[in-house]
Specification:
40% of the residues lie in helices and 24% in strands. It is of the alpha+beta class.
Length: 1157
């Protein structure tokens, strides 16, 4: 025990033999002690000197009876709440033990409990119940009605796997618990949970957003072996019963370990209970002893205690950081920042125990506007970079160890398989080597997953650090240092990724050779190399995460560079070198078999490229002198990939084509038309040939996709065969699994061929567009007539194909929704006769998902081609469908801050009165807030059914007080929060069907489109229904979108023949516009502005319609794709300060467009 922290044993109580070990303890308001006498199934009441006053309860299931009671809590009226553990309920008693109320029953649904283990009553009177065997925290009001819950079962490994592979939250949603047992709250209202099976403590804020976790399995200081109970003293110190380590550990509320209670006179054995009273007494109960031990603990104020620790020699950076956090908590910025700088200085001198949280905390304070010294930032930069480098090195070292051991395991497995196939029924000796390497492989797997997760988190911390600083007021020198830091990390990341790709591709070359070798049994050798290659891909999937976060930071710098010359220059230095785009392009190409990675990484890269290119120094780009061969058709199967050329093609394709000063300009490419002046006719012929080659690419694309579909069906058949194999059959599973490995490799080869075809087609299109642009400059219109007529025909075909793909995608989505509902119904029926039906539904879902994936790829290809065709037709003034008003994207918003690098899946959005943008992140179940300039402000919510949680928030609106109203689609509720995201209330349940749209009028009345009941329902701001207009309802057919106008009228989109309807303040229909001829689907999201008119989004067709206030169509914005300004599935719209914010759902971003006046 350190002299800084004196804990003194006082005495012990409860030593009679008829008593049982205590299982719950709390204090009444007058100082009496309530204690759960576990095996005697009763509650005992003692006075402060531990004289027994009374007891109540007996074993049984009736009201007032108990079975193994655990946690106890007392409300303001002195009522006693008991976790009646084995009866799976909570019982409420008056202060004398008279039963008043009982609620809960065994189960895992709402209002059900499974071994409630502890109770806490929060400041609002809500009962917070820790359910040990449901692995969750459930909330109840004072009458026993469930308010929802947070949490589900999960281990640390499962949590790390979910983070590593970005598992959807509806499949595994944090927080994850493994037998939670206790809850306590500190002076700020933060909650602390003993996550006993995961050997850690989890801390949450008042909205149940996880703040931190600390602890891991072990017996060192700060480690746990089943922490069973946590109690918090008045100075916010945590006293934690560390069950199997036979000790009480003491931590700060920020997670720093301080000390351990280990008293020689009274040896602690399996402590299970801690409780601290207001006088500074710590009471401890044990699992196998009836006694309660009493200790005197320090009652110093937190500030005094922190200063004592921070100034003790030798100086400990953890203690100094603790002091800094306490000063910040007490709003003493000067002392807090000084201590933070001292912490950084101590860490920089300490070769071990680096804490990346400290530099990150400094950057967050800078972001919040605190006055951070230059010296603090100078100390922080090398610390956080060193941490990232160290974690990356640890990751590759652990991976190499795993790779070596796993290869040996695979060799032994092949030998074992050969023996089984040779004599399946024969008796064999236990293979000790196989067992040894299998155990080692499991351990290596766990270790690498842990380090992969650490790398991702450290990467997020590093780039969050960068983000917070570049959004702060830092000087020019510091910005240059950050730019150098970014450049170093980019090069390190690219180099290591390419190094492992070299290994992988070398391995796969030999695999292809083996498959082509007809002689000998080469399958074991192929399989060993296949597993080796697969592990490298696994590592690469984690390494590429740094690229994603890097792109995000570059986009932030591009936004800032608009009006900052110095940042513009830094950005140019970071990205204008050909190596930046070529390195990124090469890595995109090398990931060509892993489409899921490409789907996320490629759009990020392309938008980053589009954002930074305007700041490149165009005068440094050399002028090309093209020959006629530069516009010849590209062979569909060409393997002569030039990464530099591929990168330049990508650079140009989002830019407009221009002709200035006798030079053709297209992105980063400059062409001199004069060199082709004598080959005008040949150029036209070459362009026509290149256009004709497009049909070859289309044919080959169909052919390869059919081949891929056929092989994937066969692959699924192998899975089905494997499920049907009997347990006694030892040979068939070996054969099937080996075939699966070969199939997977062949599938990857086809995927590469498809991506190779895609790259070649893109180059072919580039040659076509640039050649046609040069022909437009060099030739007379009549000479170009055939070329541009055929280009126009091709563009129309692409329009038609794209529209058909959109229709198929929408139909497939609704078919999938039906299948998912059927799947859920079959899962909940628990009827064995439904097994065949369930298997068929699962098969149908798998096939339909494959079809949807193909549709998305076809759409991507079609939209890209259409976009490029529009560029040349616009340049030649031959595009009859060109928009009257062009929306220009100013910048885009993605996830930053602590979640940088992760996906944003926006649906509804709205601006509040300050101009802040609020976004419903549909698949991440949160609401995000950004400033008008796109700076991250805060977010709230998580997955769950509690009041502050969401399941698929789809839309939102704000009232005059900036309160936020959210449609929680999955929970079928409308929830109201204040401007900071604190829950206020939820609307009455069960009064409407599916809801996708709401809007708030000038009287703060909430208008909700009730789709199933053909009406608009109006609520007051407290969630009480005011009316539903019968007059309006007569003119509605499944309303799906609504917007309240300033004059009290409303705009409504429904599923009738009319696209949009305008009602006055009394619900009278005054105008409407038909869908016919507009090529526009149902409108779910609307916005309007007196100056700019009305905008509606067509989610399924990736487009925005613009009307004037008389519902006359001004334009339809149809720029589609993943380049800058291109639309994906288009959801929420909102106008502020002359700009239109647009939710691009599958583009994973918010786009901000300038609106023409």
């Amino acid at each position: 025990m350190t002299s800084l922290f004196s804990v003194t044993f006082d005495t012990s109580f409860r030593t009679k033999e008829e008593l049982s070990p205590p299982s719950g303890l709390c204090f009444t308001h007058d100082g009496n002690i309530l204690l759960a006498d576990d095996f005697n199934h009763r509650i005992q009441i003692y006075d402060p000197k531990f004289n027994l006053i009374t007891s109540f309860g007996e074993k049984g299931k009736e009201q007032g009876q108990l079975q193994y009671p655990k946690g106890i809590a007392v409300d303001k009226e002195e009522n006693i709440f008991v976790a009646d553990s084995w009866n799976h309920r909570i019982q409420k008693f008056d202060s004398q033990g008279k039963p008043l109320l009982s609620f809960g029953s065994c189960g895992d649904e709402k209002n059900e409990l499974n071994e409630p283990y502890d109770i806490l009553i929060d400041s609002t009177g809500t009962l917070v119940v820790v359910e040990r065997y449901n692995h969750r925290i459930q909330f109840f009001d004072g009458h026993g009605k469930s308010l929802g819950w947070v949490g589900q079962r999960g281990t640390v490994l499962e949590e790390e796997l979910a983070d590593n592979y970005e598992t959807p939250l509806n499949q595994l949603a944090p927080p994850l618990f493994e037998f939670p047992t206790s809850i306590a709250t500190d002076s700020l209202g933060n909650y602390f949970i003993t996550d006993s099976g995961n050997h850690r403590i989890q801390k949450f804020d008042k909205t149940w957003r996880k703040v931190l976790t600390f602890g891991e399995q072990g017996d060192e200081p700060g480690q746990f072996q089943y922490p069973l109970c946590v109690s918090i003293a008045a100075n916010d110190l945590l006293y934690i019963a560390d069950l199997n380590n036979n000790r009480i550990q003491i931590f700060t509320s920020f997670g720093q370990y301080l000390s351990t209670i280990e008293h020689e006179e009274t040896r602690l054995e399996a402590p299970c209970l801690t409780q601290v009273d207001s006088a500074g007494n710590l009471f401890v109960g044990s699992t196998f002893d009836t006694k309660i031990l009493k200790y005197q603990i320090p009652i110093d104020a937190e500030n005094t205690l922190a200063e004592k620790f921070a100034t003790s020699e030798p100086l400990n950076p953890e203690y100094v950081y603790y002091f800094s956090l306490v000063q910040e908590k007490n709003h003493n910025d000067q002392k807090s920042l000084a201590a933070l700088e001292q912490t950084l200085d101590l860490l920089s001198k300490n070769s071990t125990g680096k804490n990346s949280e400290v530099p990150l905390h400094l950057s967050r304070l800078a972001f919040e506007g605190k006055n951070i010294t230059e010296s603090s930032i100078d100390l922080a930069i090398p610390l956080i970079e060193g941490q990232l480098n160290e974690t990356r090195k640890s990751m590759t070292t652990a991976f190499e160890l795993w790779q070596e051991a796993a290869k040996k395991l695979n060799e032994i497995q092949m030998q074992e398989q050969k023996l089984i196939q040779g004599d399946p029924q024969g008796l064999r000796e236990f293979n000790k080597d196989l067992y040894k390497y299998e155990q080692e492989d499991r351990e290596n797997f766990r270790n690498t997953r842990n380090i992969f997760c650490s790398f991702r988190k450290t990467t997020q911390q590093f780039y969050s650090f960068i983000y917070y600083l570049i959004e702060s007021e830092i000087n020019e020198t510091q910005m240059e240092n950050i730019a150098s830091l970014l450049d170093r990390q980019w090069n390190s990341s690219v180099n290591i990724i390419n190094e492992y790709f070299d290994q992988k591709e070398k391995c796969e070359e030999s695999m292809v050779q083996i498959l082509g070798d007809a002689g000998g049994d080469q399958l074991p050798s192929f399989l060993i190399k296949n597993y080796y290659s697969g592990r490298i891909l696994d590592l690469l999937l984690h390494l590429q995460f740094q690229m994603r976060t890097h792109f995000q930071v570059l986009k932030i710098l591009a936004r800032q560079a608009t009006d900052n010359e110095k940042i513009r220059k830094l950005l140019c230095d970071l990205t204008s070198s050909s190596t930046f785009s070529e390195n990124a392009t090469q890595i995109m190409v090398r990931f060509h078999e892993h489409w899921q990675t490409i789907e996320f990484l490629e759009p990020q890269f392309l938008e980053t490229l589009d954002s930074v290119m305007p700041y490149w120094e165009s005068e440094n780009i050399s002028i090309l002198e093209p020959s006629i061969d530069d516009f010849s058709p590209v062979a569909f199967d060409s393997e002569n990939m030039d990464i530099g050329q591929t990168a330049r093609v990508l650079q140009s394709q989002s830019a407009e084509i221009r002709f200035e000063k006798e030079i053709l300009l297209w992105g980063s490419n400059k062409y001199n038309p004069a060199c082709l002046a004598n080959q005008k006719n040949e150029l036209i012929a070459q362009c026509l040939a290149t256009l004709k080659a497009q049909s070859v690419f289309e044919e080959k694309s169909v052919e390869l996709f059919n081949q891929l579909d056929d092989m994937e069906r066969q692959r699924r058949d192998l899975d089905a065969q494997l499920r049907q194999v009997g347990t006694e059959d030892k040979i068939t599973p070996i054969s099937i699994n080996n075939n699966i490995a070969v199939f997977e490799f062949q599938l990857n080869l086809i995927r590469r061929m498809i991506k190779g075809l895609d790259i070649n087609e893109n180059l072919n299109l580039h040659r076509l567009i640039s050649g046609a642009a040069l022909s437009q400059i060099l030739n007379q219109p009549q000479d170009n007539a055939q070329l541009f007529d055929e280009l126009t025909i091709y563009a129309k075909k692409l329009d038609s194909d794209t529209l058909e793909f959109f229709r198929e995608r929408k139909a497939s989505f609704f078919e999938m929704a039906t299948l998912r509902l059927k799947e859920k119904q079959l899962e909940s029926s628990h009827d064995i006769s439904d097994i065949d039906a369930s298997i068929k539904v699962n098969t149908d879902i798998t096939q339909l998902q494959a079809n949807i994936d193909r549709l998305e790829l076809k759409l991507k290809r079609s939209m890209r081609s259409k976009s490029l065709l529009n560029l040349i037709l616009n340049f030649a003034n031959a595009n009859t469908s060109a928009p009257v008003i062009h929306l220009e994207q100013v910048f885009s918003i993605s996830k930053v801050g602590s979640e940088i690098g992760l996906s944003l899946n926006p649906q509804g959005l709205t601006h509040n009165s300050k101009g802040d943008l609020l976004v419903a992140d549909y698949e991440n179940h949160r609401i995000y807030c950004y400033s008008p300039e796109g700076k991250y402000r805060f977010h709230f919510g998580n997955w769950g059914s509690s009041s502050a949680a969401f399941k698929y928030p789809i839309n939102l609106a704000t009232d005059s007080q900036d309160n936020i109203y959210v449609i929680d689609e999955g929970n079928k509720k409308i929830k109201k929060f204040d401007a900071e995201g604190n829950f206020i209330l939820q609307f009455e349940e069960g009064i409407f069907g599916p809801v996708f749209s709401l809007s708030i009028d000038s009287q703060d009345q909430v208008h909700i489109a009730d789709l199933d009941n053909d009406r608009i329902v109006i609520f007051d701001s407290n969630g009480k229904e005011i009316s539903s207009s019968g007059e309006q309802s007569k003119n509605l057919n499944a309303p799906c979108g609504i917007f309240c106008l300033e004059d009290g009228g409303t705009l409504v989109g429904d599923r009738s023949e009319f696209l949009l309807k305008h009602f006055d303040a009394n619900g009278k229909l005054i105008n409407q516009v038909k869908k016919e001829g507009l090529g526009f689907d149902d409108i779910y999201f609307l916005t309007s502005h007196p100056e700019h008119g009305i905008f509606g989004s067509d989610y399924w067709n990736n487009q925005i319609i613009h009307m004037n206030n008389n519902l006359e169509v001004v334009d339809v914005y149809r720029k589609q794709g993943n380049r800058i300004g291109g639309l994906g599935k288009t959801a929420g719209l909102s106008i502020h300060n002359g700009r239109l914010a647009v939710s691009n759902f599958d583009g994973r971003k918010i786009q901000i467009f300038d609106l023409p006046s």
